[in-house]
Specification:
This protein has 303 residues and is an alpha+beta fold. It is built from one helix and 20 strands. The longest helix has 65 residues. The chain is rod-shaped and about 105 Å long.
Length: 303
């Protein structure tokens, strides 16, 4: 066989083997590629679906964010607040003083404080009212002892009227002069006794009148030193009485009308309070006089 024929046969044999090799390998490769393409298309469709859903969710959140109410803070903290009117004038301030007092001040159109509400660090509360000139004219406060006080002042900042409820519940009303001294005091004691006391310009008590809790009335007169010198009253059993005292407060003269027999009686006493003279008008109009010694023994009488 010639070389030419040999080469031709070899070429045909090579082509046949190559075709079989190609047919054997190409089909699996083709199937594998086809499956990968199908899977990629499915994943692509799923990603597109998920992307669309994500866009819809984002749009919904955006719309909800635009329509939902904005949260409002329920606390506002600061050390001082200032309120101004349209002209820029300070009309109200709320803040703390250096001593720790919390103050709310309300001002007029001249920026003059007219009403001030304050609470001190220890807890004392008060309200002050001023006129347009800045003078304090009225104050209402509660003190540490629990007493409540209403004070009215004149145009020179001097207190002239004080209405007070004491810590134990006793009420009182005081009128003061230009020097701030009390000149009259109306009071009710915790036991229920009432009294009106008048003072001189030096603040000394000069006269008073009142009633006991049971209702017995009395009037007292005092000297310049404030000592009680005279008392006119009616006792609880209905006996009218006039008592005169010396500067030391000792009773020196008693004048009474007995409640039982309605008979007048006069009694004189020494510096030690001992009865030395007694005079009375007995039933039937008969007078009687008795004198006693320092031991109050009768040394003479008539009849």
């Amino acid at each position: 066989m010639s070389d030419t024929n040999h080469d031709h046969l070899a070429q045909r044999f090579h082509d046949h083997l190559a075709q079989r090799f190609h047919d054997h390998l190409a089909q699996p490769v083709h199937d594998h590629l086809t499956r990968r393409l199908d899977r990629l298309e499915r994943e692509n469709r799923r990603l597109k679906l998920l992307g669309g859903l994500a866009l819809l969710g984002l749009a919904a959140l955006t719309v909800m964010g635009q329509t939902a109410p904005t949260p409002v803070a329920n606390t506002l903290e600061a050390e001082r607040f200032v309120l101004r009117d349209g002209a820029g004038n300070v009309r109200a301030t709320l803040g703390l003083r250096p001593d720790g007092t919390a103050v709310l001040a309300l001002a007029d159109d001249t920026q003059q404080d007219r009403a001030v509400l304050s609470v001190t660090a220890p807890g004392l509360a008060g309200v002050d009212f001023s006129d347009r000139a800045g003078h304090l004219r009225a104050g209402l406060g509660v003190r540490a002892d629990g007493s409540a006080l209403l004070t009215l002042l004149d145009q020179t900042d001097r207190p002239r009227v004080e209405l007070k409820a004491h810590g134990d519940g006793r009420p009182s009303l005081a009128l003061l002069d230009q020097g701030g001294r009390p000149r009259s005091l109306l009071a009710l004691t915790a036991e229920g006794a009432t009294g009106l006391t008048l003072y001189d310009r030096n603040g000394r008590r000069r006269s008073a009148m009142g009633t006991e809790p049971a209702g017995a009335p009395a009037v007292w007169l005092y000297d310049v030193e404030g000592n009680g010198r005279a008392m006119l009253g009616v006792t609880g059993d209905g006996q009218p009485t006039l008592n005169l005292n010396d500067a030391g407060g000792k009773g020196r003269l008693w004048l009474r009308v007995s409640a039982d027999f309605q008979l007048p009686f006069l009694s004189l006493h020494d510096r030690d309070g001992k009865q030395r003279v007694a005079m009375l008008l007995q039933q039937g109009g008969v007078p009687r006089l008795a004198l006693g010694d320092a031991a109050e023994r009768v040394i003479w009488k008539a009849p």
